[in-house]
Amino acid sequence: MKGAHNQRTLSPVERAAAVYDREPCARTFREDLEAHLLNGYVFSTPETFLMGRVVQRDADPALIVDPWHRFEAGDCWMVYLSAGCILRDVPRLMPFPLPWLAWERGNKLRFWRTERVLGEIRERKLLHAPSGNRSVTVCGCSIFPRTGPARG
């Protein structure tokens, strides 16, 4: 069946790659994937896809969002691109704890205290929620209001 393939649900990595077809991006998905394989972390399972790396929260924002820039040390996980049930998987995907998480929403870099994010996840019982077909892309996150990030 030729049409059956087109009707199947896309995997998280396919949904993540599709962002590059929908939005203007400085590089291709493969280039950003390579940057994260060399300078950060890539997690890909049937339910979740995430590219991220350690950054320094007070660095130049252009360096924070540049996946080719490698920080010697950092205090923040930069979630560059994600898809799937990322919120449920945040605690187990962090290779080691850092005090901050960052992502872009609407091309604006936002920082959140890791404990606040984990608290929201626990409060909303997302840790044990079924994955479904939710998608969080381009560093977006749906658990916080669009009014702005916590700074303190």
What does this structure look like?
This protein is α+β, with helices and mostly antiparallel strands. 33% of the residues lie in helices and 22% in strands. The protein contains 6 helices and 5 strands. The chain has helices at 2-7, 12-22, 29-39, 61-64, 86-93, 114-123; strands at 41-44, 48-55, 76-84, 100-105, 108-113. The chain has a 5-stranded mixed sheet with strand order 1-2-3-4-5, with helices on both faces. A hairpin with a 3-residue loop joins strand 1 (41-44) and strand 2 (48-55). Mean pLDDT is 80; it is low at 1-7 and 128-152.
Question: Helices, strands, pairings?
Answer:
Layout: H1 2-7, H2 12-22, H3 29-39, E1 41-44, E2 48-55, H4 61-64, E3 76-84, H5 86-93, E4 100-105, E5 108-113, H6 114-123
Parallel strand pairs: 3-4
Antiparallel strand pairs: 1-2, 2-3, 4-5
- Gap from first CA to last CA: 55 Å
Helix proportion range: 25-40%
Low-confidence segments, given as residue ranges, are 1-7, 128-152
What is the strand content? 15-25%
Q: Please list the strands of the largest sheet in the order they lie side by side.
A: 1-2-3-4-5
Tally the helices. Answer: 6
Average pLDDT confidence is 80
Q: What composes the largest sheet? A: 5 strands, mixed
Q: Shape from CA axes?
A: globular
Radius of gyration: 15 Å
- The structural class is alpha+beta
Q: Helix-strand pattern, N to C?
A: HHHEEHEHEEH
Q: Compute the number of strand runs.
A: 5
